Amino acid sequence: MTSGQNVEFRTSGSIPLLKLFESGSISIKKSTSDATLSIKGQDALGLGASGVPVLKLENVNGENMFTYYNDGNVYFGNQSLGQKRFGQDNYNDTKMYFVNWQGGGFQFTTGTHSDVSGSESTISTTGTKNLSTGNFSHNSLSINDAINQDGGTGTLRGVNIAPTLINVTGSYIGVDLNFNNSNAYAIYQSGANTKNYWNGITGFGLTSPSAMLHIKAGTATANTAPLKINEGTNLATPEDGAIEHTSDNLHFTAGATRYTLAKTLTATSALDFASTSAQNSTDLTITVTGAADGDAVLLGVPNAAVNANSSFTAWVSAANTVTVRFNNYSSSSIDPASGTFRVSVIKY
User: What is the model's pLDDT at position 49?
Assistant: First the structure.
């Protein structure tokens, strides 16, 4: 080849079978070249693996190890050993496919890195998906394979994260869900009969939990209570350890017995009963908001106010009001010492 010339090999027609350019580029079945090696396919678009490959590489045994077809698909390995496909489902498909014809998996492996700083991802998805119109669902990662274990006993996993952590001095997060949107779910599990399993201590809103289930404190802001249990229907048969919310009451089952947990209103007040003559009583009142006629009342009496042959009783005498009565059963007057009394109203 002399300077300024190209070399062509052709049989017939205007398109050369092979063309060597002065620049060092090579084209096959093309008269121009826009790459170091440029090959034009033989078949029409869409023929895929049923057509004639654009490029094929074989091993020493004549087996196909790499095949590129006109529709954009690339096949690795030979059919007998389990061919793998990388490409599109058809030539005008917008999705990218990885296919292992014999059902095996794909493994992404990175080399050993030393002194790496910053942030890196083995697999990363980026870009903006504009889904502003129509009813369109988008999955950045979708696992929809059909699994037929057919009597096997092995463990099947959709996603398995089991790294070997060596000398980790920072924090390792197996799954980091880092976004903030009121319409978004970090984890959404819709199968009603599907179980969820968590082992080890678990914190909600806490990075250093100290219990099997540790929930951060609530705030005065609406919808930030640490825990809520919606009202429902009691189990037909009590189950040990069950907590239920029915008929405005909380229930806890121990063994086979379902107990109703008391809802308590409480208040304290300094009471100073006047001297009460023999065989008489004296009343004072304490305000307990929410108390209603017929509610059960517990009374806490300060020790200094206790006298022989006397007692204190309490009851809801009107809405939001508890009356405390000092009863003198003795034969002489008693003037109880003043003190702080506590009343607790139990509601069901």
Answer: 46
Length in residues, the chain: 348
Q: Worst-scoring range by mean pLDDT, 41-50, 205-214, 250-259, 300-309?
A: 41-50
CA-CA distance, 29 to 48, in Å (whole number)? 19
By 3-state DSSP, what share of the chain in percent is helix, strand and coil, each rounded to 5? Answer: 5, 30, 70
Q: Which two tokens stand for residue 192?
A: 């009603």
The per-residue pLDDT of the chain, averaged, comes to 83
Nearest to 40 by CA among 48, 9, 32: 32
Q: Which of 7-16, 48-57, 224-233, 247-256 has the lowest mean pLDDT?
A: 48-57
| Cα-based distances in Å from 124 to 22, 108, 120, 208 | 41, 12, 9, 29
Distance of CA 162 to the CA centre of its chain: 18
User: 332: which DSSP letter?
Assistant: S
Residues 6+ away with beta carbon under 8 Å from 94 = none
Rounded-to-10 torsion of CA 291, 292, 294, 300: 10
What is the topology classification, in CATH, of domain 264-347? Answer: Deoxyuridine 5'-Triphosphate Nucleotidohydrolase; Chain A (2.70.40)
What was the pLDDT predicted at 290? 97
Q: Where are the domains of the chain?
A: 7-100, 264-347
From the list 336, 190, 315, the residue with the least C-alpha distance to 273 is 336
Quote the radius of gyration of the chain (alpha carbons, Å).
40
Token pair for residue 295? 């509610």
CA neighbor of 24 nearest in space, from 40, 2, 6, 39 = 6
